Structure formats: structure tokens, C-alpha cells
Amino acid sequence: MTELFGIPLPALLGQLLLGLVNGSFYAMLSLGLAVIFGLLNVINFAHGALYMMGAFVAWLGLTYLGLNYWVMLVLAPIVVGIFGIIIERLLMRHIYKLDHLYGLLLTFGLTLLIEGVFRSFFGVLGQPYPTPELLRGATNLGFMVLPNYRAWVVVASVTVCLITWFVIERTRLGALLRAGTENPKLVEAFGVNVPRMVMLTYGFGVGLAGFAGVLAAPVLQISPLMGSNLIIVVFAVVVIGGMGSILGAIVTGLGLGVVEGMTKVFWPEASSTVVFIIMAIVLLIRPAGLFGKEK
Fold first, then answer.
1. Could you report the per-residue pLDDT of 206-231, keeping only the tens digit for each?
2. Which domain covers residue 213, as residue numbers?
């Protein structure tokens, strides 16, 4: 059996794949955070709870309505996005001009409220979600066996991340979004409804969290606490990549997932803290993050 650094190659590649899967979730969630912060200047701590909500919406759709995975992959992000729009209209719009701390406290309170509601209805035990039939099984690549669903998670996440980056950074719509946050009065003078654009942007950002939740449903046990276990790491990813940097969120999320996976092979004790160690080093060298802009 081929070995690398004394570790069997299949085991090493398997851990690399696991790191890529985790990195895909980091990238998707940090992308949504980066979109909301970069365009709306709000630190959305409720992102983890909305990720959990996306997974539960998929489970409820399957359990009570018989809607399969593929339908819920489209429908659940829309439901979570609509919920996000309601939050933006009722609460978030009042704090855009205030200090970041107010947004952090508001969304932290929303997190506790959302998690509390789901815990009261479903408890803390995880709910299983079946892998879609089309993606069951695994493919033998010769040097390793690749689970089909995990490969799909990586492909779907990277595709959505790249499309989002392209729309925001390379299209007229993205230019209007960025201009609307820099100088809303000027953009409104050109006939653009900036409040509506902000509302839809927030809905899209939390919809990405809902999409990630559906992707995670067949991989993880769906529970009200699944978001809170992940959101701290995701915030660290956003800080390392640069607050508000779309490309930074994608690259850093995928990269840190791989680093965390490899750390579990070579130094298991450090796997739960390696992301925060990297964050501390990056902040000492480049406080704005790897892809952030120095002010």
C-alpha cells in the first residue's frame, strides 16, 4: 500500500476529501456573511441559525409534504430568504447607520430566539435526512473510494460560490449593489430603489445559508444546535479572508477546510484550534485579512 509521511494514501486522501467537504460549508456560510457585511455593513450572527433553519425546512418538506431533496434544494433557500427579508424589513433596517455592535447584539438575540423555538418543537436530538437516491453509493477511483454525495457537496458549493462572486464583482447588478452601499442617494437619483435592493441582498445572503443547510442535511444530524457549533469557525474564516471580501470568503473557506482536515491526520489535538491560530497570525501580519482592503 502506498504511503505518504508514513500514512496510507487512501486514508490521507479520504481526510483531504472530508476537509474539502467541511471547507465547502465554510465557504458557503462565510460567503453569505461576506455578502451581508460587504454590501450592508452588518455582522449577521444569526447566520448559523438560518443555516440550521434551511436544514429543518428540507426535513419538514420531506417528512410532512413528501417533497424530495431536489425540490427542497431550491425551495428551502427561498423560504429562508423570505424569512430573512421579513427580518430585514422589521428589524435590520433600523440599525444600518448605527455601530456594528448593535447589529451583532440584535442578530445574536435572533439566534437565541430561533434556536429556542426549534428546540421547543424538536428537542436537541438530531433528525436523520436520507441521501438522495441519485447520489447514493460511492465511486472507486483506484487510489480511494469517493462517496458520491460528498463529491456533489463540493461541486455544488464551489459552483454557487463562483456564480455569486461573478454576479457581485463582474456584472452591472453587482456594481449597483456596491454603489448603493457607498452612496445610496446618488444611486437613487438614477431611479434605483436602494431600500428594496438592500432588502433583496439580505434575503439572498441568508438564502445562501439555507442552501448550505440543505446540502448539510444528509451529511449531519439535523438539530437546533448545528448552526451554533459552526458559526464561530465561519466568523474566523471571514476575518482571515477579509471582512466583506467575496473572493476571500470562498478561497479561505475551502483552504481552511483542507488545512483543518490535514491537521486531523498529522496533529489531531490541534485540529479544533488550528483555524483560530491561523486567524491570530493573519491579524498580526495583516489586520484587514488576506483579501481585505487596508483603510
1. 999 999 999 999 998 899 989 887 88
2. 25-285
Report pTM: 0.91
Confidence category of residue 93, pLDDT binned at 50, 70, 90: confident
Statement: residue 237 has pLDDT above 70: yes
C-alpha 179/C-alpha 148 separation (Å) is 41
Within-domain flag for 20: no
237 contacts: CB under 8 Å, gap ≥ 6: 26, 27, 30, 249, 252, 253, 256, 275
Structural domains in the chain (count): 1
3-state secondary structure of 140: strand
Cα gap 283→77, rounded to integer Å: 33
Cα torsion through 6, 10, 11, 13, rounded to 10:
100
* 18 inside domain: no
Distance CA 109, CA 92 (A): 12
